[in-house]
Amino acid sequence: MRVLVAEDEVVLANQIKDVLISDGLKVDLALDGEQALRLAESEPYDMMILDLGLPKRDGLSVLKRMRASGVETPVLILTARNDWTDRVDGLDAGADDYVAKPFYMAELSARVRALIRRKVGQSKPVFRKGDVSFDSRTSQVLLEGEPVDLTAQEIAVLSYLFHNIGRMISREELAQHIYERDADRGSNTIAVFVNRLRKKLGKNVISTVRGRGYVIKDQA
User: Fold this and answer.
1) How far is residue 34's CA from residue 200's CA, in Å, rounded to a whole number?
2) Residues 201 and 186 in one domain
3) Which of 18, 51, 102, 153 is most buried, taking the most CB atoms under 10 A from its CB?
4) Quick check: 130 and 204 in contact, CB under 8 A?
5) What share of the chain is helix, strand, coil (3-state, %, to 5)?
6) Distances (CA, A) of 126 to 129, 138, 175, 197
7) Do the domain assignments include residue 220?
8) Total number of domains in the chain
9) Which structural domain, as residue segments, surrounds residue 36?
10) Residue ranges in the chain assigned as alpha helix (H)
11) Does the N-terminal peptide bond of residue 102 adopt cis geometry, omega within 30 degrees of 0?
């Protein structure tokens, strides 16, 4: 799952990035409003953290432009402003949640995970398929109740498929959502990750839709 963090305070931006990476997310940074808007309109992010006080183009302007151009990425706004009207303006412009500075990183992290789940219509933080469970709060994977050692990219693939359970996901879409913007996104490597997951978790967790992609079928 990919997150765009638009924050001009470099130290804070990198602190947020480190926390989200530790949560198993892929993170791109934007340090001004123009870059934030350009990335938001060109990259398929699963969620965006948007500071209202950005240089070059303020966060509220970025948000309004995104929504006007049809970008539906969930947005959590950050603001150091005390005026409650700024938060109201952000929510009315299309934000999904907000956090006022200063904030606890654990709360921010939890809100990010909740917005990502909400985007795909998933309410519970723990996903299950047969004897396999994936905890989106900790990125822990269990097989028959025992922890399974997975690489970061294997977890990224499994996480995206679980968050989109019941929906067929192409290799190209997976590649777009498990790599940062500047990474080599070769979709051919996706098959390698899926094969490794099947060896570790069993062949029935991830199904192949021949010639199209992969799916974790909903058990309901």
Assistant:
1) 43
2) yes
3) 51
4) yes
5) 40, 20, 40
6) 10, 10, 23, 18
7) no
8) 2
9) 2-119
10) 10-22, 33-42, 59-68, 84-92, 105-119, 152-163, 171-178, 188-201
11) yes
| Boundary residue ending a domain (101, 119, 137) | 119
CA distance 144 to 16: 33
Residue 81, domain member (yes or no): yes
β-strand 97-100 against 47-51: which pairing, if any? unpaired
Q: Are residues 112 and 133 in the same domain?
A: no
Q: What is the pLDDT of residues 93-132, one digit of tens each?
A: 999 999 988 899 999 999 999 999 988 888 889 999 999 9
Q: In sequence order, which residues have a C-beta less than 8 Å from that of residue 32 and are 6 or more positions away?
A: 8, 54, 55, 56, 57
User: Could you say which of 93, 119, 145 is where a domain stops?
Assistant: 119
Rg (CA), the chain: 18
Residues 6 or more apart in contact with residue 30 via CB below 8 angstroms: 4, 5, 6, 7, 36, 39
Same domain, 192 and 113: no
Are 7 and 113 members of one domain?
yes
Same domain, residue pair 81 and 142: no
Distances (CA, A) of 198 to 135, 151, 191, 202, 203: 18, 13, 11, 5, 5
Residue whose entry in the numeric block shows the structure tokens 């934030």: 36
Owner of token pair 């706004």: 77
